[in-house]
User: Fold DUF421 domain-containing protein from Flavobacterium hydrophilum.
Amino acid sequence: MKEIFEWNRVLFNELPGVFLLEVIFRSAVMFTVLLLTLKLAGKRGVKQLSIFETVIVIALGSAAGDPMFYEDVGIVPAIIVFAVIMILYRTVTWLTGKSKKFEEFIEGKTECLIQDGKFSLSSFKKETLAQDEFFSELRVKSIEHLGQIKHAFIEPSGEVSVFYYEDKEVGYGLPILPALFTKKNKNIPTDGTYSCTFCGHTEKQKTGTATCKICQKDEWVASINTLRIT
Assistant:
């Protein structure tokens, strides 16, 4: 039976000293894996915390938890993990301050999702953000249609920031209220102002079918030009 407070076991779990080098290697590898995994998950996967901050929280939480519960995990290796993580943290922080490209890779950068009431398709495709999810974010901000929006950005934190048109500048736009958006159709029933459901491009259309000159899609919904209620 093992003795309580057998210090060699408590501190090192009877591991050879050379294993501490392996701990450093394991820590660096797992830190990188966590960083890349959360990077691939996209901004929305780690909303509010940056990807880098989330990696630090997960890594430190794991390093702190294991030696608390598992007899076969020594305290000293866990402390080394902490030290390696903090060194990596300081290194990455220093590099982000020195290189704008590295900072954008680690933290992400602000992307414009809506420009002048229409989707910025090139930016929207980069983000792991479904149209329904984005519309939900806008409805929470009391937005009824894209014609009310001058610019909308997704920030590195995953938050969506919106800049509005003044009431006198609000034009027709793609409705995002479910009751209206679900009336989309490839056949335009009557002459009027319609919005492309894919890119938000808005123009007058005649009865029949039409192809959007921006994205080449052919699904439309009647536009609205209501003002925001604040």
Q: What stands out?
A: Helices lie at 7-12, 19-41, 51-69, 75-98, 100-107, 121-126, 131-140, 178-181.
